[in-house]
């Protein structure tokens, strides 16, 4: 559920994912709770993501940094602190990690995790400092379930699997072995057809809707 304790997961998300696992069992699947070694995942992500951030944003940062939001500026500045040695080490670790996940999947047709560890947060407020009742140093760690497989290039997709106490949707991630998109698509289709109650729009107060730009104190990233 939490990738070996690496990902903060809210109680509502954990309950929904466990219910989804039981749903797969009711469809005839043999479900086991298991996880591969994720101890070097944060180092892999720090190096590879920093490389991507610099490649994507450094020119815009130098030309339009004053127009960027504080969260984006923090990410760019953090990426600038990562040196070439750390990036190359992250790539070496990623190769070992890929083989570790590959060997793990030899035992299973696919695996399921939360799509992310928590439900949607507000754009017009600081990032939450808690997931459920637990304090978290980096709220963005809730996304590590997605990063854990995007760095491998393995086929993965998410499907709705429930709602939290506030009516916000919860996603289930399904991951398959290399080049087995067919397994992932088949599992997602079967689960969704068996649980149509999860496929609906979350309740929203349309009268309270306002432009996304209103949520930010600055205009955001200018795409020039």
UniProtKB/TrEMBL annotation:
Which residue ranges does the record assign to the Amidase domain? Answer: 76-185
Q: Which SUPFAM superfamilies match?
A: Amidase signature (AS) enzymes
InterPro entries referenced in this protein's UniProt entry, alphabetically: Amidase, Amidase_dom, AS_sf
One GO MF term attached to the UniProt entry: catalytic activity
Protein name according to UniProt = Amidase domain-containing protein
Originating organism: marine metagenome
């Amino acid at each position: 559920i939490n990738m070996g304790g690496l990902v903060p997961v809210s109680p509502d998300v954990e309950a929904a994912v466990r219910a989804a696992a039981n749903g797969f069992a009711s469809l005839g699947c043999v479900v086991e709770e298991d996880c591969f070694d994720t101890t070097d995942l944060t180092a892999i992500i720090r190096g590879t993501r920093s490389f991507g951030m610099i490649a994507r944003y450094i020119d815009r940062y130098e030309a339009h940094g004053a127009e960027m939001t504080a969260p984006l500026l923090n990410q760019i500045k953090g990426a600038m602190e990562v040196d070439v040695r750390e990036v190359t080490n992250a790539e070496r670790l990623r190769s070992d990690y890929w083989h570790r996940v590959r060997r793990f999947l030899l035992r299973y047709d696919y695996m399921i995790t939360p799509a992310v560890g928590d439900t949607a947060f507000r754009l017009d407020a600081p990032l939450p400092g808690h997931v459920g009742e637990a304090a978290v140093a980096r709220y963005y760690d809730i996304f590590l379930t997605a990063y854990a497989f995007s760095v491998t290039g393995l086929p993965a997709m998410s499907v709705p699997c429930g709602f939290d106490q506030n009516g916000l949707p919860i996603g289930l991630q399904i991951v398959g072995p290399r080049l087995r998109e067919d397994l992932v698509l088949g599992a997602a289709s079967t689960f969704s057809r068996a649980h149509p109650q999860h496929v609906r729009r979350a309740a929203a107060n349309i009268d309270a809707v306002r432009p996304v730009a209103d949520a930010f104190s600055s205009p955001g990233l200018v795409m020039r």
